[in-house]
């Protein structure tokens, strides 16, 4: 049951995320709405990194923030963003298909060296640290697109830019 819920949620959210990435205007990838904000390409690259984290949650019993680079250079080509996103989605979908309820119930730990930030069942970590985190940043891209006057695709029904069926 847990696996079915995770797969259903994940497939929906991945499709909605891809739709928003398809709208990225290459000429505005270096744009940001505020000096403290990430660039559009930085945010899109972060979404790809979050897929890597989701993959890591399913593959490993812990994730140590000290073992990953703090910043990754933003990807500045829309085609490259979509290609890497699609490659990671393929890996994630395969891992989800192969996982079982026992794996999803196992403890997963987020740490920074010896400091444990969070320990929880893998399914909960996947949902909060992976999927909800991705949804949050996808929504930020939606705001960026709105500010750039680019039609925003709906995630849970039509957006203000789309007609209801």
UniProtKB/TrEMBL annotation:
Keyword Metal-binding assigned: yes
InterPro entries membership: DinB, DinB/YfiT-like
Pfam families: DinB
Keywords: Metal-binding
Organism from which the protein derives: Lysinibacillus sphaericus CBAM5
Record's protein name: DNA damage-inducible protein DinB
Gene Ontology molecular function terms on file: metal ion binding
Binding site for a divalent metal cation: 46, 133, 137
Annotated family: Belongs to the DinB family.
Keyword Nucleotide-binding: no
């Amino acid at each position: 049951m847990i696996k079915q819920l995770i797969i259903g949620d994940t497939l929906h959210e991945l499709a909605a995320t891809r739709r928003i990435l398809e709208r990225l205007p290459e000429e505005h990838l270096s744009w940001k709405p505020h000096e403290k904000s990430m660039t559009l390409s930085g945010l899109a690259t972060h979404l790809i990194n979050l897929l890597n984290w989701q993959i890591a949650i399913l593959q490993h019993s812990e994730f140590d923030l000290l073992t990953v680079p703090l910043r990754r250079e933003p990807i500045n080509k829309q085609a490259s963003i979509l290609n890497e996103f699609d490659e990671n989605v393929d890996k994630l979908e395969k891992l989800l298909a192969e996982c079982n309820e026992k794996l999803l119930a196992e403890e997963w730990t987020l740490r920074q060296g010896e400091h444990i930030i969070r320990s929880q069942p893998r399914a909960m970590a996947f949902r909060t640290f992976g999927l909800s985190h991705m949804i949050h940043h996808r929504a930020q891209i939606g705001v960026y697109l709105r500010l750039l006057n680019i039609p925003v695709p709906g995630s849970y029904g039509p957006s203000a830019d789309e007609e209801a069926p």
